[in-house]
Design brief:
The protein has 307 residues and is mainly alpha-helical. The protein contains 14 helices and no strands. The longest helix is centred in the last third of the chain and has 29 residues.
């Protein structure tokens, strides 16, 4: 989760650099999907895995690729043309809350313990504390609404992927590669609607989109698919609360942005909230299981003594 947050959280920086150096939102979306797909195909085939052959799986991949890749990638690039990183970070951090609501609605989350629910709310509160959107403009702009739509789209995708794709016999790496290939095809359809001319694109913009595609899309997506398979959609979505911590740290290191006490306090609150979401209630083992374990240990001790 930490590595995923580091790679994913840097995406805001690369998108801003690409937008400010000659690339359009559609071009960024198509390029990051294409590069991410190529990375995952190489990793998939090098591991001896094959892409899915079942038509039903590919049908589910079209839906997942639209809501998890093509749509939110485009919405983030469009939204960040008019919205600063602080507001974008707050709105993106609503993904875990959307995931929880969707999980409860479709029955994927039959119940949630108050500790985990408190962790979700605490994580969002920490994100608000870090970015202090009340001190910034653009919270009610169309750009902010597009980013909110992207966060909701992620939540829909995570729930769908956890319900229809993961845990059905196909390796997460193969699924992630197939999904980004599908997303590349879907996003390419939007090219005629975008600006195909980029006369002002420079090396900084190209470098930013390449890093975004390889690390912020390809490797990130493989890690996220594995996290959904291991932890479930709601828990996997809580990585969104770590993204503000990463973006603030990168801002201080790369852009020499100031870190205040409020920001540090917000980081602590976010980390505490994420820790609470990982809480699991331990159920005591049945007495029969305990008796069997004790008998097994006793027999093993007797064998060692005889030896």
């Amino acid at each position: 989760m930490g590595v995923l947050a580091l790679l994913w959280g840097s995406g805001f920086l690369w998108i801003d650099l690409a937008l400010n150096n000659g690339l359009s939102p559609v071009q960024i979306t198509v390029t990051r999907c294409t590069l991410g797909a190529l990375v995952l195909l190489v990793l998939c085939f090098s591991a001896g895995q094959r892409l899915p052959r079942d038509r039903a799986i590919w049908g589910h991949l079209i839906v997942a690729a639209f809501f998890c890749n093509a749509l939110p990638f485009a919405l983030f690039s469009i939204g960040q043309q008019t919205v600063d990183s602080g507001v974008a970070g707050v709105l993106n951090a609503t993904t875990p809350l959307w995931s929880l609501l969707i999980g409860l609605a479709i029955g994927a989350e039959r119940s949630i313990h108050r500790v985990r629910l408190g962790g979700l709310l605490l994580g969002f509160a920490g994100t608000l504390l870090i970015f202090a959107p009340w001190q910034q403009g653009g919270l009610t702009s169309w750009g902010a609404l597009t980013i909110l739509g992207a966060a909701l789209s992620y939540a829909v995708a995570f729930a769908y992927m956890g319900r229809k794709l993961t845990g059905r016999g196909t390796a997460p790496m193969a699924l992630s590669a197939a999904q980004l290939v599908t997303a590349t095809g879907l996003s390419t359809l939007a090219l005629p609607a975008g600006d195909l001319e980029s006369a002002n694109v420079n090396a900084t913009g190209l470098t930013a989109v390449v890093i975004l595609g390889i690390f912020g899309t390809g490797i990130t997506f493989a890690l996220h698919y594995r996290l959904i398979a291991d932890e479930g959609a709601t828990n996997a979505a809580t990585v969104g609360y770590l993204l503000p911590v990463v973006s603030v740290a990168l801002g201080a290191i790369v852009l020499n942005e100031e870190i205040t006490f409020r920001i540090v306090a917000g980081m602590v609150v976010v980390l505490a909230g994420v820790g609470m979401t990982q809480w699991r209630k331990r159920t005591p083992a049945p007495l029969e299981t305990v008796d069997m374990e004790l008998a097994r240990e006793k027999a093993l001790t007797e064998r060692r003594t005889e030896a």
